[in-house]
Amino acid sequence: MALASDRERLLGDRTLVGRAFSDAWRATVDPWLVTRFEEAVAAAAPAGRISLVAVGGFGRGELAPGSDLDLLLLHDQRQAPAEVAEAIWYPIWDEGLKLGHSVRTVTEAMDLAAEDLDTATALLSARRLAGDEALVGELVDATRALWTKRAKRLLGQLRESVAARQAQHGEVAFLLEPDLKEGRGGLRDVHALAWAQAARPVLEEGDAAALAEAERTLFEVRVELHRASGRANDRLTLQDQDAVAKAFGLSADQLMARVAHAGRTVAWIADEAWDRVASSLSTSISLLGWRSQKRAPGLVVREGQVLFEGSVDPANRPDLVFETAVVAATKQARIARSTLTRLVDRCPGPPEVWPRSLRDRFVELLRCGHDAITVIEALDHVGIFERYVPEWTVVRNRPQRNAYHRFTVDRHLLEAAANAAALADRVERPDLLVVGTLLHDIGKGRPGDHTEVGIELIRAMGPRMGFDDDDTEVLVDLCRLHLLLPDVATRRDLTDERTIATVAEAVGDAERLHLLAALTEADSMATGPAAWGTWKAELVSELVRRVEHHLEGGRLAALTTVEFPDAHHRELAAAGDVAVEAHDDTITVVAPDRPGLFSRVAGVLAIAGLEVRAADAASIDDMAVEVFHVSSRFGAVIAWERVEPLLHAALSGRLAIEARLAERVRAYAPQASRPDLPPPAVRFDDAASASATVVEVHARDRIGVLYRITRAFAEFDLDVRTAKVQTLGELIVDAFYVTHTDGSLVTDAEVRAELERSILHAVT
User: Fold this and answer.
1) Kind of pairing between the strands at 586-592 and 290-292
2) Taking Cα atoms as reference points, which of 418, 421, 395, 392 lies closest to residue 408?
């Protein structure tokens, strides 16, 4: 009987989804192993008792397509039955299956379990497959006794391991590409709670049933992820989500909403349980706890939880929800489940228009920064937060189908608001900053453009929260303009007066400008690692400086700025020779001006594995000056000594750029792009500059794409004066300031149409 072929047959049966596949696969594996065991024992005839035991995930009966077979050959002999073990292990390896194996006596297993947490937890799920039943019973009894006897030490070790794992693997509920097994709220958290429960009761009434339902969801998705990806992969990537969702008859968004709900349930129960464990292990617990009759009468913080005193009735205190939340955030405590239940049962919700006191408490909560996130999520988990912000229901668990973002919409908004709280001292109205940041993407998940939808929602939300008309308009503008500064800073020439005037007109005043600057930083930091860095921060800061100067009535020319071309560039150009200078992340090329020069340099940089972030070009008499700011795919230090010879060869017509790029593409062939990526697009922006035509290109990122785009410009004898290059996940958004060789703008409709055709061909 060929086990591998049976596995392939089961994988091909699309009616066996999730748990059904696991059960069918286990029902196939178990008897096959029993047969191997019986044949091995019959051939070797060991003297003592011997058993084959499934442990770990296999012991629990959880077999995804890529799962290991975790097996223990249990015996009571003085010498390990090596002949029996080899007769079982080798057939498993011959079938191409992954095996976790050990051969031990009960005493040996217990000695190791006493020192090794992984062994101790694996034995908790021991399941007899074949052999002496009483021997397996001894192992099970000894394991239970170990967990009971050493409960305090094992719980402490387990709690520490859970915290370390969660910190490493992130969230299941809020990451767009969650680790279903190791992430916070994942399957390993469910298992850890079961192990903790074996030591002493840590779960409350109803927790076990909720965990079982969440575990089923996560495990079934994991099964289909293994099937879709063809490997033992537990990170549910964007490119696999459609295929996994199809197995359940769902859309990818529906699938991720299910995963997020399961992850939130597990994390919610786990956080509470581990808090209770921590309290039980602590030797410095105050029986009285913290209380403040003046600041928050009736609230007490005891053993890391916020509790109500008996006299507190939420029905008589409309501000109590946010008062409780603020206490929890400032004391870094959890709102006790009993407290949340009382709030759910007795809290009437806010009045039609919030009183000032309620809004102040809400703002105070947001200004607690990252300490407020888990508190708000607790309120959201039990349905209280949506009573105050009903629009939240649409963004809850809402995935964002792009690699640029790392969080679901709701978590992104909370992270952004927390970041904004740290920047509040930069603005005159911190309340508008944190509330505006929380709401800037509130329109996502609804039909239509999310910014336009968000504007309409905020027009209603502002007055409801007690903001006057002027403040509401500021909140609306923060939503309307939340992409303005980063888009302009990274895509437009900041030395162009029209660029600055356009932004100043859109913003209107310095107060809004400062709010938008803080929102931009907070939003970008919450988006993902590619969304914010020194380069982008400097560009946004420079844009804000210039716009503020313009709003104050100053002339752009009066600002201290970096001259381009500068005196050194002019000196190099006057020499009339080819010059290449590189330092840190910048390379300067001076050469006789001719069409295609920019493209050649871009091609060499792509061959060298460098990504262009921004570039400037200018002509001085018959010489071209080009400055490229780059980053390396392979580390912070750029090996310019390898790049410069290639550049000289390219500039003298002695380098096969196209062929070398093709070789690089073959060597570093990217994975297939996701089917939901938008099609490439070319846009002409006539309002962005009076001295050049701005051509914006949106396309999939690939090796040499800048070279191919700028080669298209060279085909039309167009000069690239400035290039602003930005990579957003798998997409590029590049802006080029181009002119004809005589300096005139590109206005001819036929030329534009052909140029667009050429660029689209280059990026497709």
Assistant:
1) unpaired
2) 395
